[in-house]
Amino acid sequence: MRKYIQLLAVVLAVSVSFEIAAQDNVVSKVLELGRTDNQTMVHADYLNRVIGGRIVGSPSLTYAEQWVKEQFESWGLDVIVQEAGTINVGFMRGPWSGRMLSEDGMVLHFGTPAYTAGTCGKTSGHVLIEPHSRRELERMKGALKGAWVLLDAESNGMAIDHTQKAMEKRAEVIARNEEIERKNMEIMRWNWEHRDSAAREQLPYEKSTALFYDEMVEAGVLGFIRSAKVPLRIMYDRAGCYDITMETLPKVCDIILDEAQFDVIRRKVLRRDIFQLEFDIRNHFYRGPVPYHNIIGVMKGSKYPKEYVLAGGHLDSYDSASGAVDDGNGVCVTLEAARLLAASGAKPKRTLMFCIWTAEEFGLLGSKYFVESGMVPLGSISNYFNRDGDPLMATGISVPAAMYDDFAKVCKPLADYDASVPFTVEKREGPARPRPTTAGGSDHAYFAMNGVPTISFRETDPDGMNFEYGEIWHTERDIFNKLIPRYMEHSAVVTAVTMYGLGNLDHLLSREGLYSN
């Protein structure tokens, strides 16, 4: 009996040693491929140069979903395609151009929010400044037909809200402005009667974007133009895109123009110069419903298949640029982490899920759907790594004390992967943070709200590449050349090694000290 027990102990020891060696071989292979055959930027090149911007409801997003699915399948992963929702009408953005037609004419620098109207080919017209009172509206109502109208309010990137609720708010402002106009008439009369006295100043009108929107559309305006700082922030019709049908498509253009050019045009209008603006905006719609999907690559666990380690980023993006950073960056790092592990023969103990979310820009809809769908018991998720932000280098991680030993063990192979930037694991000091009760700004939010660990890597700029996230955030500059290849390639390796290591622990990460409530 003693010999049997001794033999069994030897067999178990050999088995454990073999298992550890196999794990070490996978990690070594990931590190090697990360240096010699890193394809993070190959994914980024295709996503940006071939597919481009990927607004919800667009053919580009649908094609990108299929492309991601094909990548996972080509690497031997199982794939879950999860429909997270639909939108009534699809949107396609074609080319756009504009110019000022005058002796001092210029090419116009502008954009239009997604789910807003285009032109029927090249369309030119005169320019007016929007009316602020009914008296002004009456004075210019005949001239509104065929006009481009300058609005006072600076753009925030979203389309002009023309929902019923917005119209009701405008009506309230109009009523208050009518009272202001009555008082101003009295001031004008007083100033005339007391010409020898210091003139009283007139009261300013209360301003609201496109105050007489319905009246101007009915009068036949070509579109509205708002000023915006450069780089132009161009988003979508947040208020109305889900309510649009093929029978209620937007009728007039919604143009966001470079503030310097806007000022030039406004001065010309005030001088009553004779000139026109010409726009060719190819925004198109098609009948839905158009579904949008989460695409999840799955590497099934060999020992704990119903326990999980997740990583991800969101595939949808705004479409005035190519969505390279927000969030092609996160998508491509996640894809490459999956490819590196698959190419290295990884067979983790627990299931790894590479989550490419949809509709993050429309309110975290994809990740919210996943969390609420019950597909994966939230208590069985060891951690979710979210990447959605700067294309910087994952150079460390800060974790609660109860997780420290596990992360230190798992991340040890990364310590000297890049000798110039050692990867470090730090023990988080201070009291635990409260569990969030409202959704934040990215796809980790609904996981965190439900108590799931969402420990993320610390990302830095060790080479001093001077990246500024505000420059690309939802702007026309979110393009391929803003990516930083060395940082993204490094981060893909870090993600792969850490996911694999957590997947091979004999336990889920402790949640002790993760949240204070």
Write the layout of secondary structure elements.
Elements: H1 2-36, H2 40-51, H3 59-74, E1 78-101, E2 110-111, E3 123-129, H4 134-140, E4 147-150, H5 164-193, H6 213-219, E5 223-228, E6 253-258, H7 259-270, E7 276-299, E8 304-314, H8 324-343, E9 350-357, H9 365-373, E10 381-386, E11 393-399, H10 401-411, E12 424-427, H11 445-449, E13 457-460, H12 469-472, H13 485-503
Helix pairs in contact: 1-13, 2-8, 8-13, 10-13
Q: Judging from the principal axes of the Cα atoms, what is the shape? A: elongated
Structural class: alpha/beta
Could you name the ranges where pLDDT drops below 50 across 5 or more consecutive residues?
A: 10-16
Order of helices and strands: HHHEEEHEHHEEHEEHEHEEHEHEHH
CATH architecture of the largest domain: 3-Layer(aba) Sandwich
CATH class category of the largest domain: Alpha Beta
Average of pLDDT: 95
Q: Any idea of the CATH topology of the largest domain?
A: Aminopeptidase
Share in β-strands? 15-25%
Integer count of domains: 2
What's the number of extended β-strand segments?
13
Superfamily (CATH H level) name of the largest domain: Zn peptidases
Number of DSSP helical runs: 13
Let me know the largest β-sheet: 10 strands, mixed
Assign a percent range to the helix content. 25-40%
